[in-house]
Design brief:
The structure is a single chain. The protein is mainly α. It contains 8 helices and no strands. The chain is elongated. It comes from Centaurea solstitialis (yellow star-thistle).
Length: about 200
């Protein structure tokens, strides 16, 4: 029995997929896996090829061709020349190479976040948004940090001139969300900016 998915539906769905270009492998891998599942050929990725060609049915041959072809077409032109004898080998090779790179990227992201310290020479909100972007990148790599830990970590990164404000936040009994923390930062920065304009001084 042939695959029930129409060619029109296949092309329509595939057109929405971003081509893999050496970045965000995990996200691309998941999307491609969902797509191949819809095509009912994803089993090819976990099934070794028959030892002899005559043991392979016409449908298996067709499904292998579809699976391998869509993986190759889902890669950027610079990666299209990467090939193996089977869809499974191609998939395994991509996974081995780029999952390892993802691990390195994760370590790099975690290191950047842990070592980040806010400075007095830049607006706190600007630096807060940078930290938010880092946490957003964590999500792309399926890394999850408890929100209360994220909030506490960001508070600890406040610059020296915000020492009193930092201590006040640390002694609050209620837990803050990241959004609420950002609101507190925004209010405090606005007050600080107004003080500088009115008295021409700097934040103590």
């Amino acid at each position: 029995m042939t695959n029930p998915v129409s060619m029109k539906d296949m092309h329509k769905t595939f057109a929405k997929l971003e081509k893999f270009s050496r970045q965000d492998f995990r996200r691309w891998q998941k999307k491609m896996h969902f797509y191949l599942t819809d095509l009912k050929v994803v089993y090819v990725l976990s099934t070794p090829c028959p030892a002899f060609v005559e043991n392979e049915t016409l449908e298996q041959t067709r499904n292998h061709y579809i699976c391998r072809g869509h993986i190759l077409n889902g890669m950027s032109d610079s990666l299209f020349d990467v090939y193996q004898n089977s869809a499974k080998e191609l998939w395994d090779r991509l996974e081995a190479k780029y999952m390892a790179e993802d691990v390195s990227s994760k370590k790099f992201l975690v290191g950047n976040f842990l070592n980040y310290k806010m400075v007095d020479t830049r607006p706190v909100m600007e630096q807060y948004h940078e930290l938010q972007r880092m946490l957003g990148q964590f999500a792309q790599y399926d890394m999850k940090m408890d929100e209360s830990i994220s909030v506490s970590s960001i508070i600890d990164k406040l610059p020296p001139s915000w020492k009193d404000f930092k201590n006040n936040l640390k002694h609050k009994k209620e837990e803050l969300t990241l959004v609420e923390l950002g609101s507190h930062f925004q209010i405090e920065q606005s007050i600080s900016d107004m003080e500088k304009v009115s008295v021409g001084g700097t934040k103590p």
